[in-house]
Amino acid sequence: MTFTARGAVPPAELGGDAGAVGDAGAVGDAGGDGMGGGGTAGLDAAVHEVAAHAREWVRSPAAARADLLDRVLRDTMTASDDWLQAACAAKGLRPGSVEAGEELFAGVGTLVRLTRLTRDALRQIAQSGRPSFAGTVRQADDGRLRVGVFPDSAFDRVLFPQITAEVWMQPGVTRADLEAGQARSYADPLAHAGVALVLGAGNVASLGPRDALYKLFVEGKVVVMKANPVNDYLVPHWNRALGALVEAGVLRIVDGGVAAGHYLTTHPLIDEVHITGSDKTFDAVVFGTGAEGARRKAADEPLLDKPVTAELGNVSPVIVVPGRWSTSELLYQAEHVATMLVNNAGFNCLAARVIVTHAGWPQRDAFLGALTQVLSRLTTRRAYYPGAAARCAAFVDAHPEAERLGSGPDDAMPWTFIRGVPPGRTDDICFNVESFCGECAETALPAASPAAFVDAATEFCNEVVWGTLSATLLVSPGALHDVAVADAVDRAVANLRYGSIGVNVWHALAFAIGTTTWGAYPGHPRSDIGSGCGVVGNTAMFDRPQKSVVRGPFRAHPKPPWFATARGSYEVMRRAVAFEAEPSAAKVPGLLLSALRG
């Protein structure tokens, strides 16, 4: 099979973490004609209803908006049990299991956290004109500002022990620019009034609502949010959770397939579009499909002449810095990387896709052996996202040596691991295509020393591996005792062209934390959109962020509850979500005790 385009599988196999527009082959239409339950009349009414409130919304005081988010917090918690039950049924997750805990936090939990942090930021705007940020502002060697944003409170230190995070700003941003650029839609409201269309993804339940909150409360737009047909079942639960915004007339949530998406993107009252999906979805929306769409893309002649922001896919790398690891450290990091793959059955744009190792690392085989042993013990999960079997088959066809691991229900797919992909084969599917299923590959780079390996891995990820969304480095404390390695790791963090970087923690934490930004590394032109443009999260409301860097311990104690191997994680996640909704010292002992039991 020949692959001529980077980023997504060929159109016949199109899937990915995609919105409905442009993905009829993968997700199909919903509602008969693809227009959803209300047809074009219902869609048109939704747009007109929010458009009528656009100028009123952007003029509304920050304190009043914070009050709305107070109700969203309460309503989301009220809806959470039914929401989780529906998600578990759709994805085949056992109630009360590790997977159910994972679903609870990724869906309800991250939305609750972002809602609370945004509410708090609005209260700060009401008091002082801009949100605060937790840490100091430092300057990298090249002049870029590094802004500490996490931990934001003593409670953050409880929920995310030993985790720190910074937002790095784009070159040229000064300290004065940093603060002047915060919360721009509140400083000049009428300049930001408008109607945004949010095309939600179909994999993680919180994505559409989170994107809608960003457009509403950071950018000042009223929103029509269209669900992906894969998770249309969540629309009633979203309407309950976000009911305060629906009643205020600033949000409408609609369903439907490709036809609904096309109708909405071209609606004259829609001012801008936000997509969480695949790069192929973006191209279909902006340039159209078929030969004419390809011609328009090549000529940079958009069919849709509106601002479009997007969080798209990625072949996320995990760089393993060589060091002398103990047996327990090998097992811990094997469980860590396995979690990055199996979370949400592999249907994540932030899943581990390429493990980059040093060919000369004496423990390479031991680490990869531990990883495959962990994967073989983890129960496989329902392949609920359309097109998964075809996408995975493309990788196995290209790599018949692929290991198929694990066992589970009949509608599950095995975990697929492809070891030893030659790094010189730069056109390999494993480096260029986001599989969007439970698949991961490994490649080993030759290098004269561990420090040289880190430099080579940085160049390999920047120049060969497709996408700029997220990456992780794993480096032991012992390895950092070598000054050359420590300097190389610092260079990697500075030079990796990814919107989020994890150091000893899965880069997904940049999505979960909320005070960090989430989105592609800036600079993609629309004719070569890659992993997208624009950010979400970002509750400090910076206007020129470049990347977020999250750091943690090489081995955490106790084991993080989001590990796929964590026992009792459902109870920890249940308590963590309640804590996020309303942090309280009284809740800390129970949360810590449940974490220690895991």
User: Which topology of the largest domain does CATH recognise?
Assistant: Aldehyde Dehydrogenase, Chain A, domain 1
Mean pLDDT: 93
Indicate the CATH class of the largest domain: Alpha Beta
In helices, the fraction of residues equals 40-55%
**Low-confidence segments, ≥5 residues, pLDDT <50?**
1-5, 8-32
How many beta strands in the DSSP annotation?
19
Strand arrangement in the largest pleated sheet: 1-2-3-19-15-14-9-10-13-12-11
Summarize the structure.
By secondary structure, the chain is α/β, with parallel strands linked by helices. Helices cover 43% and strands 14% of the residues. Strands 1-2-3-19-15-14-9-10-13-12-11 form an eleven-stranded mixed sheet, with helices on both faces. The chain has a six-stranded mixed sheet with strand order 6-5-4-7-8-17, with helices on both faces. Strands 16-18 form a two-stranded antiparallel sheet.
Could you walk me through the main structural features you see in this protein, from its secondary elements to its overall organization?
The protein has 598 residues and is an alpha/beta fold. The protein folds into 3 domains: 39-131 and 183-276 and 278-311, 3-Layer(aba) Sandwich (Aldehyde Dehydrogenase, Chain A, domain 1), CATH 3.40.605; 316-512, 3-Layer(aba) Sandwich (Aldehyde Dehydrogenase, Chain A, domain 2); 568-598, no CATH class. Helices cover 43% and strands 14% of the residues. Strands 1-2-3-19-15-14-9-10-13-12-11 form an 11-stranded mixed sheet, sandwiched between helices. The chain has a 6-stranded mixed sheet with strand order 6-5-4-7-8-17, sandwiched between helices. It is globular and about 65 Å long.
